[in-house]
Design a protein that fits this description.
- The protein has 344 residues and is α/β, with parallel strands linked by helices.
- 46% of the residues lie in helices and 15% in strands.
- The chain has a five-stranded parallel beta sheet with strand order 7-6-5-8-9, sandwiched between helices.
- The radius of gyration is 22 Å and the shape is globular.
- The model has no long low-confidence stretch (mean pLDDT 96).
């Protein structure tokens, strides 16, 4: 089996990568287990110094890394650069605070001495989504490794270029060998990995269906689990709102990464007294969004990541219209044969 990375803007093939064999997967788990006992006793100052180096490398290489994101999922390059900068800031934050976060907390009880101690679990499996390929990975990697755990990361199959780059960076910054390893496997091969007694916890970021499957497997095998399953955030506009500022904020947040953001506003509630004015402001600004090559620094809206996303979007809009929704602006594929959908 292979992973194929396709550029959603021009349909070119970025990379074809072979899947890890079962033997390779088992070796990676064994290697993580071998180094786990050493890493969990590593000095906290050492962990912080590595994080500082990680932050510096991300900043130094942000343009190069951002281009990988844009070529794999179509996110406009300015937004991709912001994503890398966010990862660097996170590394800085944990470099400055890891020791404080992991410090024993003494509490008053009727015992002679009582305290809360934060100890690593061991090997943590991370399963992360593609929509922010560096951020979704590093938001999990940085605190998990900083707490003294080893990480095995299974990234989405459509972003192997970003996955390889993350793996190279983690080696470059100086983490001991096998503290971090990338698993190149398909989702349907995760059952045995989650069930493996050497895996001590699972972190998942993705859709509800995938999360329910991971939770069931982890629960059956008594594994600690963290699930991040997106959202359906509401954007509420009250009568005293500044229409210009509010409509701009909605567009910036809803159309970021072609709408493929778990924390963007999915539902908009507008007070009836300002509805018409708000819709007019919204439509005028949507019509001026610059659509085009996501590597162009002026582009504000790029293509969606793949055909599956586009087809689902078309289905959702058509279904809404059939159920009585009113189309105010957009509502169709932007160019024939492309993965662009009109801002709608």
């Amino acid at each position: 089996m292979t992973f194929i990375s396709k550029n959603p803007y021009n349909h070119s093939i970025n990379l074809i990568l072979n899947e890890d064999s079962e033997e390779v997967v088992q070796l990676k788990i064994s290697n993580a287990q071998t180094v786990s006992n050493e890493w969990k006793f590593s000095d906290l100052s050492t962990r912080s110094e590595i994080l500082k180096k990680l932050s510096n490398i991300l900043i130094d290489r942000k343009k190069e890394l951002a281009e990988l994101i844009t070529k794999e999922i179509g996110q406009p390059i300015k937004q991709s650069i912001n994503e890398i900068e966010k990862c660097a800031l996170t590394a800085q934050y944990y470099a400055a605070n890891t020791e404080k976060f992991l410090k024993d907390e003494y509490v008053q009880t009727d015992a002679l001495e009582s305290y809360i101690s934060y100890e690593p679990l061991g090997i943590i499996l991370g399963i992360v989504s593609w929509n922010f390929p560096f951020w979704m990975a590093f938001r999990f990697i940085i605190p998990t490794i900083s707490a003294g755990n080893c990480v095995l990361l299974k990234h989405s199959s459509n972003v192997p270029m970003c996955a390889l780059a993350i793996e190279d960076i983690m080696t470059e910054v100086g983490y001991p060998k096998y503290v971090f390893q990338m698993l190149y496997v398909k989702s349907n091969h995760l059952d045995n990995i989650i069930a493996d007694s050497r895996i001590n916890g699972v972190s998942f970021a993705g859709g509800v269906y995938g999360g329910s499957q991971v939770a069931a497997l982890a629960g059956r095998n008594i594994k600690k689990t963290v699930l991040e399953l997106g959202g359906s955030d509401a954007f509420i506009v009250l009568p005293d709102a500044d229409i210009n500022i509010t409509s701009s904020a909605l567009i910036e947040n809803r159309f970021r990464n072609a709408g493929q953001a778990c924390n963007s506003p999915k539902r908009v509630f507008v007070h009836a007294s300002i509805l018409e004015e708000f819709l007019n402001s919204l439509s005028n600004k949507i019509s001026s969004l610059k659509i085009g090559d996501p590597l162009d620094y002026e582009t504000e809206l790029g293509p969606v990541a793949n055909e599956d996303v586009l087809n689902k979007l078309v289905q959702q809009v058509n279904d809404s219209l059939q159920k009585g929704a009113k189309l105010v602006y957009g509502g169709k594929i932007y160019q024939g044969g492309s993965l662009f959908y009109e801002p709608t």
